[in-house]
Amino acid sequence: MTDRASSAVAALREKILALSNLDPPGGEEPEGVEAEDREIRRVLKVLSAAGLLAELSNREVCAAREALSFRSGLADVAFVMQGLGSAAISFHGTSAQKEAYLPRVAAGECIAALALTEPGAGSDLTAIATRARREGDGYILDGEKTLISNAGLAGMYTLFARTSEDRRLGLSAFIVEPGDSGFSRVERLRGLAPHPIGRFSLRDCRVPASRLIGKEGQGLGVALSVLDFYRPTVGAAAIGIARRAIVETVTHLKSRRQFGAPLADLQGLQFLLADMATETEAAALLVARAAAAVDEGRPRTTLESAMAKLHATETAQKVVDAAVQMRGGFGVIRGSVVERLYREVRALRIYEGASEVQKVVIAREILRG
Asked: Per the structure, how many domains does the chain have?
């Protein structure tokens, strides 16, 4: 990375950390669907005003996600979903599609969503069963989507459906709006941590042909291009959570006294803290390598991205678990920072390719030479 690029990334990180109005009002975690939705909209206004929803490099997105997840998991979700939900348009859309959606997404006026997952299709995108058939000047969509971030909030969904029976060449990408005829009521789901997520159905949902992203049959490539870009940034979010856990741990070890001395004097806890910090920095280097590879425009960054995502998320889980353990009973009390981090970090090992899937990908990439 050039000195100028490095300085820009560092400045972006510091800009986010300095935002005084990023944290939830009163510091309280939003409870319930309506509170989550209000917080997402509020955060998007803050991020848009700060110019953080514009198109960014992978290294910049990583820096932003690290800083945001250090502050608030929900703020990180609000930020990244604007990118994930609109990236297919940015990468593959027509000029008309870009003009219609990207400025509103960047302004935080249109909330974006990526609709890939289905009851029978998660890591295996070729198992997507939602159908799209051409009819006149549009397409008719039928199917179900689940575990969709921003479901019920989004003003536009990048949605993937099957236009032929070919497993790999039969997927196509569409822009679907919640007001489209046949877009059914959203049912919200509740996770471990605040996160707007839900499921919905499409029943004879008509969308104009102008909302096809790319060409018919290119959907798998479109989806993979989006996931390949954002996979290293999941690792960056994990790094932010791990670093927050370390900060909280240091404060606790210095202030908490047991057996007549601060916990920081106990060599066993010092060793554990050293492992936490070292593994986090090693993971950060893997993330930085993957982000640099993406920004350099390499034709394949699969290996670097999978390693970064796997190691960073698994490391963050271990770091947060250690932070909880060192706080004893206070670490599992609802409302403490490390308890919140414990809930926030868990999903990172699953979405955008579970850890087990990343291991399969890594092994295949190594074996193919």
From this structure: 3
Question: Do 202 and 319 lie in a common domain?
Answer: no
Q: Are 349 and 228 within one domain?
A: yes
Each of the 369 residues of the chain gets a pLDDT tens digit; together they read 566 667 778 888 888 888 878 887 777 788 888 889 999 999 999 999 988 998 899 999 999 999 999 999 999 999 999 999 999 999 999 999 999 999 999 999 999 999 999 999 988 899 999 999 999 999 999 999 999 999 999 999 999 999 999 888 899 999 999 999 999 889 999 989 989 999 999 999 999 999 999 999 999 999 999 999 999 999 999 999 999 999 999 999 999 988 888 999 999 999 999 999 999 999 999 999 999 999 999 888 999 999 999 999 999 999 999 999 999 988 899 989 999 999 999 999 999 999 999 999 999 999 997
Last residue of a domain, one of 106, 140, 173: 106
Tell me the sheet residues that pair with 130: none
Q: Residue 186 carries which DSSP code?
A: P
Does 123 lie in the same domain as 84?
A: no
Look up the pTM and report it: 0.93
Is 352 a catalytic site residue? yes
| CATH number for position 56 | 1.10.540.10
Cα–Cα dist 78/179, whole Å: 22
Q: Residue 24: CB partners within 8 Å, gap ≥ 6?
A: 30, 39, 72, 74
Contact 53, 47 (CB under 8 A): yes
Contact between 175 and 158 (Cβ < 8 Å)? yes
The single residue of 304, 352, 356, 365 carrying the catalytic annotation is: 352
* Domain of 246, in residue numbers: 221-367
Alpha carbons 365 and 166: distance in angstroms, whole number: 24
- 232 and 356 share a domain? yes
Strands 138-149 and 197-208: antiparallel
Report residue 224 as tokens.
């993979």
Looking at the structure, do residues 168 and 283 belong to the same domain, yes or no?
A: no
